[in-house]
Amino acid sequence: MLTYLLIIGAVYIGILMFFSWRTKKQIKTSSDFMLGGTKIGVLIGLMTFAATLFSTFTLLGMPDFSRSNGVGAWIFLTFSDAIMVFLILWFGFYLRKRVGQSTYQGMSALLQKCYQNKTAGYLYFTAVFLFLIPYIAIQIRGVAIFLVSAFPGFIPVWGWSIGIVLIILIYSELGGLKAIIYADALQGTLLMIVVWIVAFNCLNKVGGWETLFEKAARVNRDLLSTPGPMGLLSPQFLIASALAILMIPVTQPQLSTRLVIMKNYNALKKMATSVGFFAMLVILPTIIIGMYGAIYYADASTADFLGGVLLEEQHELIAAFIIIGLFAAAMSTSDSQLFAMGNEVKGLLGLKEDDNLWPIRVVILLFALSALVFSLLSSDELVLLARLSFSGTALMGPMIMLGIFSKRPQGVVMIVLSALALFIFILSNLGWFPKHIFSLRTDLFLMMALGFAAISNFFMLNPKNKG
Length: 467
Known about the structure:
Elements: H1 2-24, H2 30-35, H3 42-53, H4 56-69, H5 72-99, H6 107-115, H7 118-150, H8 157-206, H9 209-219, H10 235-246, H11 248-251, H12 253-260, H13 265-296, H14 302-312, H15 316-349, H16 358-377, H17 382-394, H18 397-405, H19 413-429, E1 436-437, E2 440-441, H20 442-461
Antiparallel strand pairs: 1-2
Helix pairs in contact: 1-8, 1-15, 3-8, 3-13, 3-15, 4-7, 4-13, 5-10, 5-13, 6-7, 6-15, 7-8, 7-14, 7-15, 7-16, 7-17, 7-19, 8-13, 8-15, 8-16, 9-13, 10-17, 15-16, 18-20, 19-20
């Protein structure tokens, strides 16, 4: 496998360097560097959005999550992603309308403009920093753990993690967002091919679809229904998760940026519909792999399960492609989010087109180092950590949507409520605040309360919209 890996890895890095060299020549202003310089079409828009959305946890986290919690994991993501397509269309239209012809400087700066209050931007940036840094970290940690399993005793987890971060920084700092977008297209293609090859191999070894679920039922019948063997996938968990995933295009800057830089709204509509189809295709095989793991790796650790099904049971060539695909997935999501946070800082600082980019490069470096440290300290529960990230940023969703949809400044009420909800959510996850409020999960209660507050605020300050 090492020979295959070196050859495929060299080709992959060569392609990345070509992308970086090509886009570096086109960088004339800070917007060229931070926003890609030009509008993007449907195909590239689909691949960069999907690659950023479906990251390392899709191939590493989702199969293991399905192995432990059963087919309810399909509801956890697929139903939520299907609804998200409609939100992309709705929110994307108003976001692009609000931005207009001006240069997009990030959601933080846009919220400051919408609310005519700087606190709104800083609150949003705080939430993004607190919850996207862990999400970047799980990309790094997921691949590092997998590489340790692939090459035991060669390099420790921290060594792989540092290497991944260095490559991400070098590539993104040279070519800017446009180079990242090109890399996304390559990563999305690799992810789709790799995950289906593994799934087909699992189906072939177990004896087909019907046999897969029959054998899974013999192991544990709870795998075929919710809330699953561990009781995690309760109605409240699934509803709260759906709301968190629904808010991803609204609250996560790497995705809202891609909505803005689409060529036109018609291209955005086609891209959103395609993302929904892509979601179905990429999540379905993870259920197959997970059920296969529940049958043959029921008592194995996460590392042993992933190492067995993704490496040991695959041909050396396929295993090498899987490793490169996972690395590409981690790189795609991580550099997109680092860049998005850099753009948020650019907007908050009010930097102009011709300002020096070094402050932003330094900020991106600091974010990357923070993610590296967190990756070394985090757990191996990739899906649950990803959900935590989605839920934390989702709390900013009602405030963002109120600011984007309303034509009048909203005052400080929504800002204060959002800040309070964020504070309570953090305390709850630290174990310093109850996990439930009035029999509802704390995150679900907070989302419902903020949603009600935003709707009430909208109609009170925009009375002509009633009815």
